[in-house]
Design a protein that fits this description.
By secondary structure, the chain is mainly α. Helix 1 packs across helix 2 (about 35-40), helix 1 (about 1-30) runs parallel beside helix 6 and helix 4 runs parallel beside helix 7. The model has no long low-confidence stretch (mean pLDDT about 90). The chain contains ten helices and no strands.
Length: about 210
């Protein structure tokens, strides 16, 4: 009975987070309404407050669910990967999967950029620093091996994250545009696969000594 209750709670939490991602992506933090998130999730407000808390706490949980999961995936993904090049590929693939799994996140990020990040919770910066620390270790390993140039890891992250966020934001618009070229339409809006491979190639070329 305890396990069944635990599973039901996890399923409810998952529905709330999915609904919140949609609402925050559509309306931003200021415009999002807890009533609407609860409606989208198929729960009442009391259930939402019980599982997570107020809108600010919910927003922080949404951000952490995406960025924190990416940080954990990256840390685990490079454990058994030896070469710096393969670790960079794992880093890019982790970003691609994160945005493919959470297509609302680029719009949330674009809204935050436009507002000067005024609503970003502290946990975002903690999770981001975890990712940057892992990336720094990868770049340092490559530099020490004579494979990578000495560079600023944060800039490398901005190169990768900027490409992925812009692609996920613009690709659906291009796909919906009847005047878009066949080549543009054939690219699709998924990052994982050929697009991630091309981003990997460009990043590795930029890092190569």
């Amino acid at each position: 009975m305890h396990e069944e209750k635990k599973e039901k709670g996890a399923e409810t939490m998952s529905r709330i987070l999915a609904a919140a991602k949609d609402e925050f992506a559509d309306k931003g933090f200021a415009g999002a309404r807890v009533d609407e998130i609860a409606r989208r999730a198929g729960v009442n407000k009391a259930t939402l407050y019980y599982h997570i808390g107020d809108k600010k706490a919910l927003y922080a949980e949404v951000i952490h669910d995406v960025v924190g999961t990416a940080a954990l995936r990256l840390s685990e993904g490079i454990r058994d990967v030896g070469s710096p090049e393969e670790r960079i590929r794992t880093y890019i693939k982790t970003l691609a999967k994160t945005f493919d799994d959470n297509p609302q996140m680029p719009r949330i990020m674009m809204r935050e950029i436009a507002s000067g990040g005024r609503n970003l919770p502290e946990v975002f910066f903690q999770d981001l620093m975890s990712i940057i620390a892992t990336l720094t270790d990868i770049i340092d390993q490559g530099r020490d091996a004579g494979i990578f140039v000495d560079t600023v890891p944060l800039l490398v992250h901005f190169m990768a994250i900027g490409t992925t966020v812009i692609y996920k934001s613009i690709a659906p618009i291009m796909l919906a545009n009847r005047g878009a070229s066949d080549e543009a339409k054939d690219m699709g809006d998924r990052l994982s696969g050929d697009i991630a491979d091309e981003i990997e190639r460009l990043i590795l070329k930029a890092l190569a000594r």
